[in-house]
Amino acid sequence: MDGNKIIARSLAQQGVQYAFGIVGIPVIDLAMALQLEGIKYIGFRNEQAACYAAQAIGYITRKPAVCLTVSGPGLLHVIGGMSNAQSNCWPVIVIGGSSDQAQERLGAFQECFQVESSRLHCKMSARPPNLSSIPRFVADAVKLSTYGRPGAVYLDFPGDLLNATVSEEDTDWIPSIPEPPSTMASPCQVAKAVKLILAAEKPLFIIGKGAAYAKAEDPIRNIVNQTNIPFLPTPMGKGVVSDLHRCCVGPARSLALQKADVVVLFGARLNWMLHFGRLPRFNPDVKVIQIDISPEEFHSSLPTAVALHGDLRTVSKQLEEELVKTGHVFKDSSLWWMSLKEKVCQNREVNQRSAEDTEEPLNYYAVFHCIQETLPKNCMIISEGANTMDIGRTVFMNELPRHRLDAGTFGTMGVGFGYAIAAALWCRDNSPRKRVVCIEGDSAFGFSAMEVETMSRYKLPVIIIVVNNNGIYAGLDHGLFHDLADGSDPAITLPPTSLTPGCRYEKMAEMYGGKGYVCKSIKELHSAVENALKETSKPTIINVFISPVAQRKAQDFDWLTRAKM
Q: Is the peptide bond prior to 26 cis by the omega test (within 30 degrees of 0)?
């Protein structure tokens, strides 16, 4: 057996089902060996997008997928994806081919210190010393990517190791690594958390993507139903408890965060996305109950009142059992609930007025409302772009967990098409009637636009909707753009945020025989989405022109609260 076959068989024995990447010297034979072992290989156009796809499979399934890359520049392209996986705490195994060991430090083809280059961006970076040790390194990669806080792992394989051979009997095959153990929190700490929740006058649950990854939706839903305590989902925590649940206070996010006196973090971290738990966005006297698999996360930005260390699903079950015993129900008639409901109604009315404003050029709310009303229930929504993502999360309702993927903790633009391809593959294999909808800002679309060909090649009917405002955050209309660009140096006169006005992105569908639609009205958009839903084997691109100056509703605080901290 050569190194390629040993790697492929080891991965298959560990339950790996998907691989994404770009082949070249020295990993072409490895990609084919993966297929021979029954691992599905998806060839991408850019390594970074391939890494985004592999980690999205890890998030959706809790099982790592492989990102396969060539040596040198190929591996360096993947490092951004590895950092994204580390930041989001998603499992992924990156496998990189490298130059022959015998040629190291001689200026070999694409020679690069790949193990060292990857080390800062993953949980483990290693090169097996010989063929017989490969199964052990693969097993370690699966274990380390999923045990504890999930993340990225890198394995390096020089070309001469891939092409070397050894007898099957001399290879140390490793049994399949079991799923990560479920660990419980201290019962004393659970009792302390329950006591604090019962004493709270303004309690709030915050549900993060860690809860979605942990598949903790059942106990968390039971807790919310039992206690009637308001909850706030983070962007990828949406759907762990339905956005349509009576206790969801997403539209009153600022008020909920600012006034809560006890906050329970279910798989959420007090990082920039939650304003570090500090003034002016949080109550200075807030008490935080935090559930996390990683004890290093406690007391990170402010003291944790109760630290519940353990598997989130298991600890949530512990909390559920203890809260059920108390029979505690937080009353709708409380001042806290009344103030939250009032704010929810106010903000929904503001959003609804914007959604009903269908004057052309269109605004974000009108576009998203039309899409939401036209799509079937429980589509998987992939969203990226500045305003496109931020406004979209307030309009698109998620009723199921792991059905919204976006820029995440690392704030990464360019993830959309990789995530969408992974989601579409998962849907085809597990829920064939479910649709994947990728809603992109026009800037975000450009990061990985050629992956539409990848979608077409593998017959993935992703619906791509480009919300086109001619720029990043805001663009220019045709007249002003040409006034600034014509007769002068556009590198001096055009704003850095501007993109080409009226760019016809939908025409990219023609290159693979697909259909593209350009929309300027709600009627055209509704028709385009309905037509896209009829396509079952190719991606569809819908290019929606909106006002270049369309914005979200006025906010109480600057983005990132930078000016307020």
A: yes
Q: Kindly tell me if the per-residue pLDDT of 353 is higher than 50.
A: yes
Query: What are the structure tokens assigned to 232, written together?
Result: 């706030």
Alpha-carbon span 418 to 57, nearest angstrom: 10
Query: Could you give the 3-state DSSP secondary structure of residue 306?
Result: strand
* pLDDT tens-place string over residues 26-54: 999 999 999 999 999 999 999 999 999 99
Element at 232 (helix H, strand E): strand 231-233
Q: Is 310 helix (H, G, I), strand (E, B) or coil?
A: coil
Query: Is the peptide bond between 361 and the residue preceding it cis, with omega within 30 degrees of 0?
Result: yes
- Do 274 and 257 form a contact (C-beta atoms < 8 A)? yes
- Taking CA atoms, 74 is separated from 45, 98, 516, in Å, by 11, 10, 32
Integer angstrom CA distances of residue 133 from 145, 323, 497: 18, 49, 51
pTM, two decimal places: 0.96
Q: What contacts 87, CB < 8 A, 6 or more positions away?
A: 408, 409, 410
Mean pLDDT over all residues of the chain?
A: 96
- pLDDT for residue 561 is more than 60: no
515-531: pLDDT as tens digits: 999 999 999 999 999 99
Distance (Å, rounded) from C-alpha 222 to C-alpha 199?
20
Give the pairing type, strands 380-384 and 306-309. Answer: unpaired
Answer whether 463's CB lies under 8 Å from 542's CB. Answer: yes
Residues 6+ apart with CB under 8 A from 410: 83, 84, 87, 88
Beta carbons of 388 and 364 less than 8 angstroms apart: yes
3-state SS class at 417: helix
Q: For 125-185, give the DSSP string.
A: EE--SSGGGHHHHHHHHHHHHHSSS--EEEEEEEHHHHH-B--GGGS---PPPPPPPP-PP
Give alpha helix (H) positions in 289-415.
312-326, 335-356, 364-374, 386-395
User: Closest by alpha carbon to 16, among 69, 93, 123?
Assistant: 93
- Run of H or E including 92: strand 92-98
Element (DSSP H or E) covering residue 528: helix 522-534
Element (H, E) at 459: none
In whole angstroms, what is the distance from residue 531 CA to residue 528 CA? Answer: 5
CA–chain centroid gap for 168, Å, is 39
Amino acid code (one letter) for 272: W
Report the candidate in 174, 182, 181, 146 with the shortest Cα–Cα distance to residue 14. 174
Q: What SS3 state is found at 414?
A: coil
